[in-house]
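Standup, Tuesday
Yesterday: got the pipeline producing structure tokens again.
Today: sanity-check two examples.
Blockers: none.

Example 1:
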Amino acid sequence: EGWMEKEGGLWKSWKKRWFVLKCTSIFYFESEESKSFKGQLSLDNENVTISRCIHNESSKHLINIVSNDKKLRFHGNDEELNDWENHLKRKIECIKYLKEIRSANLTPCPKVILFSNDNSSNSFRFTNIFISKIEAICINTSLMYHKNIKYLSLRNTKLNDDSLKLLCPSLSENVILEYLDLSENFITKIGAKDISEAFLKDQNKIYSLKILVLNDNPIGDEGVVLLSDTLLGLNKNIFIDSLCLNNVNLGDFGGNYFISVIQKVI
């Protein structure tokens, strides 16, 4: 919630309005104390879109939301617009998640919903629960646009390579995550390759990841080689301190390669 300048509907003037993102809609009020809202826009719509643009006449930087035949445009500084864009995209993904889960007659995961609506926590644990592909998509969007999260645990969530691949786009985008626990899952060399490629995608980003825990996954020698090169050797935009690889079906070749990369780094 917060103050923003809203563009009028019929008359294209700009007025300060108090905006509130609640449930599946964004509301705006004349003042923070107002009991009734001046208007609202539902985000519970398959065709809802959010974009950034610059107003032709005033050169104001805007967020433009279109839902069915309704449109809402508001202006703020860059930090405010970034926050609103992040919150709105995460909210829309959560709405999609709930629709998909209910259409499949499944029970929503409370932790996924909580993470999607969390704006301030710097740590979150999805531990000892089942993360399906549907949940992975929602978590991916939430992580991509979460600006505070530094510790994330997905330990023992039955993640396989397919589910992990759906999470990897957020690893490419999120540059503040410092600790990621993916232990006790079903990640193979295919998942290790996806993790490696995620951090190689944008060489202009500097990642904050310091600890990656992959214990108790059947990664094997090929996966360990890929991770060693990317996280400990080749990639200069990530400076990881600890890559945990206990019980990952590591053979002599993978073990020796891992040691050789560490020796080069030291």
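Example 2:
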Amino acid sequence: MQSCGLVALRVTQETAFNLWSKPTTRWQSRCLRRGTGVPAPHNIVRRFLSTPPTSGSVKNPVGFMGKIVAFADKRPLVVGTVIATIKTALADLLVQRAVEKKSWDEIDWRRNRAFLGFGFLYLGVGMYFVYVKGFRILFKGVDEFCRKPFRDKIRDRKGLVLLSKQVFADILIIQPFMFWPTYYTFKEFCFSPPSDTRKPGAIVVDALQKARMHSFADNVGMGAFWIPANYYIYALPMYLRLPVNHGVSFLWCCILSLWRGSKESAIANETVG
């Protein structure tokens, strides 16, 4: 009886493997032709979440800065998220302290929590999957263009068209339909007092109404800042895209904090607008 059970278990395992390994889709057939095998279902998610091979992989890093760049190349999601979280919250603190001249007792920590959460979830984690993962899928050949020397990039007409598509996809789609609605939603939740009786859905609706109210000024101002910057950022190797973006974004977060950071300024803008 024990041997029969082992034989039955073995047959079941082989049957399950054969069913999954059978090339029922183009993707599975391509994997088998290449000799890479078809990944198990539980590895598909891991493969998507894992760091993709970068176009400008750093080999034999030299010195402290070389090791930092090599780590950014190997772990872009971790590096980008840490930088995004710290710089977004720090930019708001800098504006409140240096520009608005607030003491530490006067710091609006609800406002700072809004920037902290926005920096972590949206600018860090979310934008990795948009700008690195998503742009690789939407814009084929981006890695080949990014690894070229600068003098070859400016002669590559197809690459420059591809670069412009990325820039204006960011300006015309990502910023108005993802960035601003998400930002106003974080802000609305963080500024809502404990006595607020609104349901989460109502808070989101109010946030989206504010985003729509300021949409023209917000997107024109953001486009004026980011169009020139993105032409440089999107031409960099993929592993440098988010770290450099976050470096430039520090200045943008300072502008955002001063422009749309406080609850009082939002109410004033609503009155004027």
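Quick observation on example 2: The CA atoms of residues 51 and 104 lie 40 Å apart. Confidence is low (pLDDT under 50) at residues 1-25, 36-42, 44-56, 264-273.
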